[in-house]
Each structure stands twice: as C-alpha cells, then as structure tokens.
Amino acid sequence: MLKTKFIRLWPLATSAIFGFLFAFLIFIPEAYSKNRSIYRILKDKIVVMQQIISYVDHFYFDIVDMDKIMDGAFHGLMEELDPHSTYIPAKQQENIDELFRGKFQGIGIEFDVLHGYITVISPVPDSPSDHVGLQSGDRIIAINGDDAYKITKDEVIKKLRGKKGTSVDVTIQRIGLDEPFDVTIIRDDIPIYSVGAATMIDNETGYILLRRFSATTIDEVNKAIDKLDSQNFKKLVFDLRGNSGGFLEQAAAVSNLFISTRDTLVYTKGKISDANQAFISEPHKGRNDFSLIILINRGSASASEIVSGAVQDLDRGLIVGETSFGKGLVQRQLPLEGGSAIRITMARYYTPSGRLIQRPYEEGDDLTYYKELYAKDRETILDSLKQLRPKYKTRQGRTVYGGGGITPDIYIPYKSILTKETQKLLRNPHRPIFNFSSSYATQNDLGFKDFKNYKQNWQVNQSVYSQFLDYLDSDSISFNPDSLLKDQPFIYNRIKSEIAGTIWGKDESTSIRLSLDNQVSEALKYFNEANAFLGYRN
C-alpha cells in the first residue's frame, strides 16, 4: 500500500518541482536583475533536489513516505532562518486557525476522559452545553445512541463538533441521580477564550489571567475590566505568565487600555514597507484610575512582552515576576497549496523606548535556544550579564534593558515545594481531586448561596479530608498519607477551589487558588510602588 502511495506521489513531486522551475523561469529576467546570486543558487539547488528524490526513489532499501520527506524538507528550510519561522502542515493548520480565530463550532464543553467516560470538567459559559444545563462532573455515556465508554479524545471531538445548527443527542449520567437522561444539544459557535479568569483577590484588587492574544482578546479584556468595575476594583494584577503571544494588533490594543496619554506603544521594522508599522495610543481608550502590576515569567513571550514593555517604558505600572522569554520578532502567516502554510519572520518589534528584546540565537540551533529557558540559574546568569546589555530610559528616566526579554522591576521566582506524592496525585489521569470535589459539591448543601461568603467562611475540615482519602482508596489510587499530610494546606485549598468551580465557575475557582500562588501573594506587597506611577501619570 505504501509502495503504491510512493509511486503515486513520485510523479506529483517531480511535476511540482518542474512546475516550480517553469514558473521561476518566467520570472528569470526580474529575479536576475534584482539578485543574480539568488537565481543561480535556486537553479542549482532545485536541480540537486530533483536528483536526491530520484536517487531515493531508485536506491533506498525501504518504502518511503514522500509526504513525510517533503514536509521534513520544508521544516528544515524554515528552521535555518530563525527559531520562530516555521512550516505548518495542513493537518495542523486547522487547529491553529481555530485557536487564534477565537472560536469553533460544537457544543462547548471542557472535558476529559476519566475512567473511560467523557467527563464534563466545565461547560463553556453561554455555550449550548451551558444552556441545556450540563454540569461539572457529568458523564456523557452515549452519543447519538452509541456507547461512549472508553472513547478516545479525538473521537469525542469528531462526534461532538459539527456545523452550527446541527444537533447531537447525548446521554448524561449525573452524580446523585439513579437514572441517566438524554439531552439534545444544538451546535453553535463556541468561543475559545483568551481570558482565563477575571476575579477579585480582595475587596480592592482585581485579577485578570490572559492566556493568549487571539482575534477576540481586546473585547474579552474589556469585558473582564467591566466585571471588575462592577465590584469596585482599585488595583489590578494582570497575569501574563505562560502567555506565548499572538496577534500584534491585539497586543497594541490591550496596551492602550492602560495608557491614557498619546504615546508610541510598539513599532516594527522589516525589509518591506508593509512590515514597518507604529502603533500609537488613543488616550480616550486608556485608563489611569487604577494601579497596575503585570506578572510575567519565562513563558511570557511576544505579544505579552509588547504589553509589559509598553507599560514599563511608559511608567504606567510595575512589572513583577521573572525575566520574560525574549521574542522580539514578528511573524506573518502565508497560505500554501493544499492547506499548509508558512509562518515567516517579517520584522523586529521595538518597545516605546526603542528596545529590541529578542534573545540571541544561532540559525538552525533551536535546541540551545529553548534549552536556555529551563536553566535553574537562568535569572542569576541574566543578572550577571545585565551590564553588557543595551540600556534605555523610561519616560520617567528609569533604566531598562534590551537584548533578552523584559527584565522585571521586582524579581519574584515561582516557588513550589510540593512533595512528589502530591505532584503524582495532581498528574493522575483520573483527576481525583476534581472528581471528589464535584461529587461533594453535588451531594452536599454547603449552605452558601453567595461565593464571597463561601470564600470567607467555609473551610475544608478534617472530616472532608478523610472523605477524600476514602475516595482515593475506593478508586484504587495509591498514596502515602504521611507524605500527603505535608501538603495538607495545598490539598485543602485545591478541594475548596474545585468545589467553587463546580458551583460558581472558573473565576471563583481561580480566586481560591490564588491565595497559595506565591508570585501573586508577593506581588500584592508592591502596590505602594505601583501607586506611585499614578501620581506621575496625573
């Protein structure tokens, strides 16, 4: 079969190559007049490529997957440019499009396959699943009458996603009910949210977690701020940890939310005129009536660094956490035949003070480029080299650095001292803390209709903890009680968080968890310094 595939693909590959050569020959005069060396190199290399494919076809001892070989060649070509230029095969492109378009069509659930059953982790707010009343902990035991036990995640997606307006019948097994029941769900557009949480840490401090910069990000952040406004927030922790970036325009728009003066937010420089852009703030879109702390870490890249760089350079707020990734390159995605695409670096971007924050890299050495991020002493090394990096001045005259990420104003490393036993429990594919908590929330009346009262007054006690350990036993999940005891405050917090998530939703679940996030807790101590920027802006 594979041999037949190769024979079928071979003429296509060679014809594609000769087609490219023919097309290229049409434009020889223009290409030749612009750059003779480029024409000569392309002509010679394409002939070599044809020879290589011919030799592989004739001499290679085993069956060859031509699709895989050519994809590998395309990957190799892009990797020689820089770490962020890449070739995207057609089968990956659809998922990437969905992620940055900010929506897909389906029923709208976050799920996992636990003990062989599709288990609802949470329905997406305002989605069809939310509208029909699906709840955290529900099991989907059948889809359109077909048993869904031991179904794979890929099969779940294929069966539950579909065109807007079409229906799917699911059979639900709910905790506390003796009999399953059927629900018909009409598929619709499902948003992929950029905002992971918008909640209050205390009576004055709001918190927004931003996961990515997609097409809907600015609208989502505006809604999140409106929600916090309704709760009278006066301080904001804007969490960009682990946010790897996205659309440049969205990064500029989010930056503008915090800037109430007319300033440059970010600008780009490239080889072609289209690559040269400057994003200028519109003062009426910005606010300076709350103090701001932005959290970053080594996973904060690209668009995240544009926002934190603008806020730092324009002295709008305090940057706290760890030195960011260091990606100062802008990519444009260009479509190719057959549904694939390339993402090619077309420009460098610069923060308002003129900083280029791209980390050094060697062409083709992606391993070293990414490995450096995970060095345990990364921050110490960066600090020792700080004086060698180019220096710039903020609007207020503070020194900031280019050449390798955004250096935080206040360095706070992330600390996690959980035992291996607790980490093993968190990684368990059956998600025992979630399962126990969702069952407990469904089967017990906690006596709280209001989340704020629940957060302040309800605590996991020894009785609840003992029930949790009994659940682990009943589910045949091995554990060491003495080891877990060392992390009891964390486990208590996680159970309380999951119960809040089941009853009220992800924002409330996040609000509980933040109390044990050391970077958030430490950041709150620096709002006096963040407040000082408000005086400067006024």
Architecture overview:
It is a single chain. The chain is 42% helix and 20% strand. With 538 residues, the protein is of the alpha+beta class. Strands 3, 4, 5, 6, 7 and 8 form a six-stranded antiparallel β-sheet that branches. Strands 10-11-12-15-16-21 form a six-stranded mixed β-sheet. Strands 1, 13, 14, 17 and 18 form a five-stranded antiparallel β-sheet that branches. It is globular. It starts with a helix and ends with a helix.
> What is the number of helices?
21
Q: What do we call the CATH homologous superfamily of the largest domain?
A: 2-enoyl-CoA Hydratase, Chain A, domain 1
- Top CATH class of the largest domain: Alpha Beta
Name the poorly predicted regions.
1-33
At CATH's second level, what is the architecture of the largest domain? Alpha-Beta Complex
Strand-helix topology:
Layout: H1 2-26, H2 28-34, H3 36-59, H4 66-79, E1 86-88, H5 90-101, E2 103-106, E3 109-114, E4 117-123, H6 128-131, E5 139-143, E6 146-147, H7 153-160, E7 167-173, E8 181-186, E9 188-191, E10 195-200, E11 205-210, H8 217-229, E12 235-239, H9 248-257, E13 264-270, E14 277-280, E15 291-296, H10 303-313, E16 318-321, E17 329-335, E18 341-350, H11 366-371, H12 378-384, E19 391-393, E20 399-401, E21 410-411, H13 420-427, H14 432-443, H15 451-457, H16 462-474, H17 481-486, H18 488-503, H19 506-513, H20 518-523, H21 527-537
Parallel strand pairs: 11-12, 12-15, 15-16, 16-21
Antiparallel strand pairs: 1-18, 2-9, 3-4, 4-5, 5-6, 5-7, 7-8, 10-11, 13-14, 13-18, 17-18, 19-20
Helix pairs in contact: 1-3, 2-3, 8-9, 9-10, 14-18, 18-19
